[in-house]
Design brief:
The protein is built from eight helices and five strands; from the N terminus they run βαβααβααβααβα. By secondary structure, it is an alpha/beta fold. Helix 2 runs antiparallel to helix 3.
């Protein structure tokens, strides 16, 4: 795979606007006549989507390692069957969550040892890395408020086990993602997600144009 593939991942905690930004970037790239695969994790293939259902609504509480293996099984399938083939065809790939979410949720939150975590991540991606990652970051109150509003709009009780998480969980997520921004400064750009959706998209787009020389 070329070292500088057209692979972008969008990261951040619950309700920060990842899905909105993923769609926005897809539209802007399509306006330039590019072919864009928009996908998400866990998921992206029939098997990985089935894993997603189990992962988000597990029939029993998974251990930390079980969580890691579930998302990693989904990821290796996703990378091998969908992401790598799309990149090899010269398409753009935008992925709503990728391995930085594993570092935060299964590492920081669930407590998997970082050496184990990194080794499983490396096995599951086999060298297929995003060229650019956006971490959407905003104060916890804003993220919690958005999730609550969205849940109300959709008239759902709560969409998954993380949406109904405590303030403490939201704070840990935020801290975890900021840790990755510091850890991988060449790949990850932090975006101020407290802005309007259009402003966030404009910021991201400016970085994409610069990073990929569009
Ligand atoms: N910048 C923004 N300003 C205000 N509201 C926003 C912004 N971005 C997204 N929203 C709204 O907040 C809610 C959450 O956004 P979105 O679903 O894109 O977040 P997400 O990060 O994908 O969440 P999840 O982690 O649950 O998938 C949605 O109702 C969306 O319309
Ligand atoms: Mg989303």
């Amino acid at each position: 795979m070329p070292q500088f593939s057209r692979f972008i991942s969008i990261e951040g905690g619950e309700g920060v606007g990842k899905s909105y930004l993923s769609h926005g970037l897809q539209t802007r790239l399509q306006q330039l006549q590019y072919e864009v695969l928009l996908t998400r994790e866990p998921g992206g293939t029939p098997l990985a989507d089935s894993v997603r259902q189990i992962f988000l609504n597990p029939p029993e509480k998974p251990t930390a390692l079980a969580e890691l293996f579930l998302v990693s099984a989904a990821r290796t399938q996703h990378v091998q069957k969908l992401i790598r083939p799309a990149l090899d065809l010269g398409r753009w790939v935008i992925c709503d969550r990728f391995y930085d979410s594993t570092r935060v949720y299964q590492g920081d939150l669930a407590g998997v040892d970082s050496k184990v975590l990194e080794s499983v991540i490396a096995m599951s991606v086999e060298g297929c890395h995003p060229a650019q990652t956006f971490v959407l970051d905003c104060p916890t109150d804003i993220a919690m408020d958005r999730v609550q509003k969205r849940t109300k709009q959709l008239q759902l009780e709560a969409t998954n086990r993380y949406d109904e998480g405590s303030r403490e969980m939201y704070e840990s997520l935020r801290k975890g993602y900021l840790k990755r921004v510091a850890e991988f400064p060449e790949r990850i750009v932090r975006l101020d997600a407290s802005q309007t959706p259009e402003q966030v998209l404009d910021d991201a787009w400016a970085h994409v144009k610069q990073c990929f020389k569009l």
